[in-house]
Each structure stands twice: as structure tokens, then as C-alpha cells.
Design brief:
- This protein has 7 helices and no strands.
- By secondary structure, it is mainly alpha-helical.
- It has a single domain (4-176), classed as Butyryl-CoA Dehydrogenase, subunit A, domain 3, CATH 1.20.140.
- The N and C termini lie far apart (81 Å).
């Protein structure tokens, strides 16, 4: 028989932390924690769980990534530092924007690569620990991590340059209009 209360007390903070680092949003994180423990409670009746920490961490990463993929782009004030006494507000804003963009593009990764990336960089697990948590080889972890980094770099670069190229083409179009003296609203 499993002492469910002790499992929740022992692993609850880790589950919350895993989901929080992936999602960065309190309400979504709390929902994921509930989903994880509900799913684990159902699983314990079906199979014997040998390592609760590994199972719960894996479930938290999977459910948080699922939630991240379902999320529509929004601007939340949750977690933003509106007043910063210690640091530069511009640095805080840049950091928040980077974290938001990273969360968006992680949701576009294949599930295995997203899991490995999140466990490595959000949970600071070693490749061997990730392999044990996900029940894969450490070589597979290395390959997935390499693919995830490459895809994230491409996605983040694409997002960044996409905005710049749009701005450049808009500026070029405006420059052409000024030189010719034509404006689309004038109908010439």
C-alpha cells in the first residue's frame, strides 16, 4: 500500500518547480500539479511504481509541455518585475521577453526533444538522470538535446529575423512611396 500523503509532501515541491520552470504561470502550474498527481494516483493502481520521483518529474514535464502547446499567445503580468530596485529595468524586460519567446518555441519542439531540453536546462539534470527519468539511453538523451538546441536556435533566429525583415520591407516600401510622391490612399 502506498502512503499517498507522504508522496505528495515529498515530491509536491519538485513537481510544482518542474511545471513552473516550463510554464512560468502560476494558475497553469497549479493545474498541471493537480493533473500530475491525479494521473500518478491512477497509475499506482495499474502498475508498481519503483521510483516516484522519476515518474512524477517525467509526468510534470510532459503535462507542462502539453499545457504550453495548448496555450495561446498572451501577455500576462504574472511573474513580471514591474519595479526593480536591484537591476536595470531594461535587462529585466529583455529577460522576460526572452523567457516568453523560449516558452513559445519549446512548445513547437517534438515531445521527446522538449522533455529532454526542459529536464536538462530547467531542472538541471545530468544526461544520465534524464535517461533514467525518461527510460531511454544516455546516447538518446545527447541526440535529442542536440536536435532540440539546433531547432530552438533556428526557431528563435527565424522569429527574430522574421520581424526584422518585415520591418525592413515596410521601411523600404515607405521610402519608395516618399520618393515617388505616391501614397496608396491617394489612389494614384
Amino acid at each position: 500500500m502506498t502512503d499517498w500523503d507522504s508522496i505528495i509532501r515529498a515530491h509536491g515541491p519538485m513537481v510544482f518547480g518542474t511545471a513552473w520552470r516550463i510554464l512560468g504561470h502560476a494558475a497553469d502550474t497549479e493545474d498541471v500539479v493537480q493533473e500530475v498527481f491525479l494521473e500518478a494516483y491512477r497509475l499506482r493502481g495499474v502498475e508498481v511504481v519503483r521510483h516516484w520521483g522519476g515518474l512524477l518529474r517525467r509526468l510534470a514535464a510532459c503535462r507542462a509541455l502539453d499545457r504550453l502547446r495548448q496555450r495561446k499567445p498572451s501577455h500576462s503580468l504574472n511573474g513580471l518585475h514591474l519595479v526593480s530596485r536591484d537591476g536595470d529595468p531594461e535587462e529585466a524586460a529583455i529577460g522576460n521577453e526572452l523567457a516568453r519567446r523560449l516558452r513559445e518555441v519549446i512548445g513547437q519542439l517534438p515531445e521527446r526533444e522538449a522533455q529532454v531540453f526542459c529536464l536538462r536546462y530547467f531542472e538541471d539534470l545530468s544526461n544520465q538522470q534524464i535517461a533514467e527519468t525518461l527510460h531511454i539511453s544516455s546516447g538518446a538523451v545527447g541526440v535529442a538535446l542536440h536536435k532540440a538546441r539546433a531547432k530552438l536556435e533556428a526557431l528563435l533566429t527565424e522569429t527574430k529575423t522574421g520581424g526584422l525583415s518585415d520591418a525592413r520591407s515596410d521601411a523600404t516600401s515607405r521610402g519608395r512611396l516618399r520618393r515617388t510622391g505616391r501614397d496608396s490612399s491617394q489612389g494614384r
